[in-house]
Design goal:
With about 750 residues, this protein is α+β, with helices and mostly antiparallel strands. The chain contains 12 helices and 46 strands. The chain is globular, with a radius of gyration of 28 Å. The termini are far apart.
Length: about 750
């Protein structure tokens, strides 16, 4: 019988080793798996995290393991390429940092055996990802096991397969469940015992056969119905010879039907089932990608608390345990490969192998409904024939491997609505940040209406939207200020636009959690993307978290926003309350400020601000409390001061009735003198972009100019620094002085 031995304990580790070790000496450190060598330098900014080769080594003794015919080393995640050596002999190479793969080490495993694994996350032009807004943590960051099996066993070689494939087909109240076994060295006289059991463990169907594929019927099937009823069955197969069970595998599965309708969105088991949820990166503060089971459980608990019905698991294959949790909790999943941002002509085979692994290893999960082909891959344009061919190859591959699910992709904002690439997958979503990276929040809904009108037969969704928030605060939130108040306002607006458009097949907030992005240096805390509804350490739920909970969760609650914004200068301050209950009453020091009803779940109160005030929100049986305090001057601890920036907005001279760098580009360009003044700026931008009307694949179309128009001029000059276009303090102050002479329109 199969035995699985976990090998996570005590691996020797070195970033200094340069060749296959013959032994382990005092120069090596010892670590337990899961482990990442970028747990700290991958989250502190400067884009200087170690990218290269590091070695893991472990001594093992064959007599310590169960007796078996074959021994397979199972590696569940080594980012991003790895080589396995046993006693100095190279046995395998693997490209792709997020999937399970195995190596047969039987012939080399002896009494005294040294296993060495060289893991490499260095830059190259063939293994994805290479360019993306997240840290590519190196390491053996998931479990490593030894699988001990007989000569005849369920397959362990094909792309990390679980050894069986389950495909339910529903017919009214019954289900026909096709179960396929993949067997290595299947010999005459051996048979397969198939068993289906329900959630309680009772047998609902069984068969014994020499065939590796059977169909078993379940009468009055209990359907998997998302968060409402995530019912799971179990399929088990035993490989039997005489009275002996040589090997056994099992998997849980769910019986469900779904459609993605271009008019009515997602339909589960014949019922409209709106997919409104979040995206998830898998890293954590101080540990990188090396998550433990309790971390995954905490993540799923938080996602369920917010009320999400769907998760986009970005931008790579996640841990099998997390897919299991999604099955159990009823989350509908978008699963994808890390074909992201930059198309690499030498990377096609890697996109194919990563897709084969993703589907092979995750086919049995009922939570997954779409396979993602790519993310923002048209960053350098959408007309590259090789890029289009790569997508067609992947799309055909997915349909060949899985005839039960759809394909999708996440398109960059600047990918044209008429682009040929959006016609390749079955459904499509766009990543839009109107209201954060240009544009206004009210541009989001109309954009999707325009797409829906242009392509009424293509299901459309929003795969990313969000804005960054840290512990900065203001009573006058504005785009680009990184305050918790602007993030809350932004999501209030997007919720009202997206959740009322039923044709949108899915919407996914970017992101559920702040995550490591070592190249980032914005918001006052380098090395992270702070668009999460929850901080990277999972300790603080930002106010926007509760905005979604108010719309999506059935668990009654009331939440006062701005708990970290205590000191306020205004005599009357706005206080926002979120609740999924119909009516909220707010009290200030025990005095009622009135009751409000809101179908939108957002309640806004004007609160007198004098001295110390205890605020209490009451909704039905539920209460929440916070405090505010009147101060004479704004508390500078609440104001973002960008580190390393040439100018902060509050350092800029403003003149009443005249423009400054703190004004929006669109307002300045609406005046003749303002337009003339800015011509020099755009000349510099276009020159730095090589002239013409395009930069990095982005066309400066009227739509793009409209998006840019919502930026303050200061923020625009900061953002173009990512394109290596820089302005000195003197240049900016000179431009500001010129703007101070231009009158605003009255």
């Amino acid at each position: 019988m199969r035995s699985i031995v976990n090998l996570n304990w005590k691996w020797a580790f070195s970033k200094q080793a340069t060749e296959v070790p013959a032994s382990i000496d005092s120069k090596w450190d010892f670590v337990n798996l899961p482990h990442s060598w970028n747990a700290l330098d991958g989250q502190d900014g400067a884009n200087d995290f170690y990218r290269g080769t590091a070695w893991y080594a472990k001594k093992v003794q064959k007599p310590d393991f169960p007796e078996a015919d074959r021994y397979y080393l199972e590696i569940r995640g080594a980012n991003s390429s790895a080589d396995v050596y046993v006693n100095g002999k190279k046995l395998a190479h693997h490209d792709g940092g997020y999937s399970t793969w195995r190596v047969d080490i039987t012939e080399e495993l002896g009494v005294d055996t040294l296993i060495a694994i060289a893991v490499d996350n260095s830059e190259n032009d063939r293994v994805y990802p290479q360019m993306a807004d997240f840290t590519f943590y190196g390491g053996l960051y998931r479990d490593v096991n030894l699988i001990c099996v007989s000569e005849s066993h369920f397959d362990l070689d094909y792309y990390g397969t679980p050894g069986l494939k389950v495909t339910p087909t529903l017919n009214g109240s019954d289900a026909a469940v096709e179960v396929e076994a993949y067997v290595t060295n299947f010999k005459p006289g051996q048979v397969l015992r198939y068993t289906l059991t329900d959630k309680e463990g009772a047998v609902v169907a069984s068969a014994e056969s020499a065939d590796t594929k059977v169909v078993l019927d379940i009468q009055n099937v209990h359907r998997w119905h998302g968060r409402k009823d995530p019912y799971l069955y179990t399929a088990a197969i035993e490989l039997v010879e005489g009275e002996a069970v040589l090997d056994a595998v099992s998997t849980r599965f769910g019986c469900r039907t779904y459609e993605i309708d271009p008019q009515n969105g997602f339909i589960l088991n014949g019922e409209e089932y709106p997919l409104r949820g979040v995206s998830r990166h898998q890293d954590r503060w101080g540990i990188g990608n090396a998550l433990l089971p309790e971390h995954h459980r905490e993540d799923i608990d938080l996602i369920c608390e917010v009320g999400a019905t769907t998760i986009r698991l970005a931008h790579y294959q996640h841990d099998q345990y997390f897919y299991d949790l999604c099955d159990e909790r009823g989350l509908v999943i978008w699963a994808e490969i890390p074909y992201i941002s930059k198309h690499m002509p030498n990377g096609r085979e890697n996109t194919i192998s990563q897709m084969k692994e993703l589907i092979t290893q995750n086919y049995n999960h009922p939570c997954i409904v779409v396979w993602g082909l790519s993310n923002e891959i048209t960053m350098n344009g959408d007309a590259d024939p090789d890029l289009l061919e790569n997508h067609n190859v992947l799309n055909d591959l997915v349909h060949e491997m899985d005839k039960t699910r759809k394909t999708t992709m996440a398109c960059l904002t600047m990918c044209p609505m008429e682009s040929p690439i959006i016609k390749i997958p079955d459904v499509v979503s766009y990543n839009h940040y109107f209201g954060w990276y240009g544009g206004e929040t009210d541009m989001n809904g109309p954009w999707f209406d325009k797409f829906h009108e242009m392509h009424p037969d293509i299901p459309i969704g929003c795969s990313e939207y969000g804005c960054e928030a840290l512990n900065w605060h203001t009573s006058k939130p504005m785009q680009g200020d990184y305050t918790e108040e602007y993030q809350a306002y932004y999501h209030e607006e997007l919720i009202k636009q997206f959740f009322t458009r039923k044709y949108m097949w899915a919407t996914h907030v970017w992101n559920m959690f702040d995550f490591g992005a070592d190249a980032r240096s914005e918001g006052g805390e380098n090395g992270q993307n702070h668009k999460g509804l929850v901080t990277i350490d999972r300790k603080y739920k930002k106010d926007a978290f509760y905005a979604y909970k108010a719309w999506l969760s059935d668990d009654p609650f009331v939440h006062i926003c701005g708990k970290r914004y205590v000191d306020r200068v205004e005599d009357v301050t706005k206080v926002t309350v979120y609740s999924n209950l119909p009516e909220v009453e707010l009290f200030a020091n025990g005095v009622s400020l009135g009751k409000q009803a809101s179908a939108e779940h957002f309640f806004y109160f004007d609160v007198p601000n004098a001295g110390e005030t205890v605020l209490t929100a009451v909704a039905g049986e539920y209460k929440d409390e916070s405090r505010i305090r009147k101060v004479a001057e704004f508390n500078e601890a609440y104001r973002l001061r960008e580190k390393g920036t040439v100018l902060n907005w509050f350092d800029i001279t403003e003149r009443e009735g005249y423009f400054s760098l703190n004004d929006k580009l669109s307002d300045i360009m609406a005046t003749t003198q303002g337009k003339l003044t800015l011509m020099g700026l755009f000349t510099k931008l276009m020159g730095s972009m090589g002239g013409g009307k395009k930069a990095a694949g982005f066309e400066l179309s009227p739509e793009m100019m409209k998006m840019m128009g919502s930026f303050t001029l200061l923020r625009l000059t900061g953002l173009v620094s990512m394109m290596d276009i820089t302005f000195t303090k003197e240049q900016l102050l000179d431009l500001n002085a010129k703007l101070n002479k231009i009158k605003k329109k009255s």
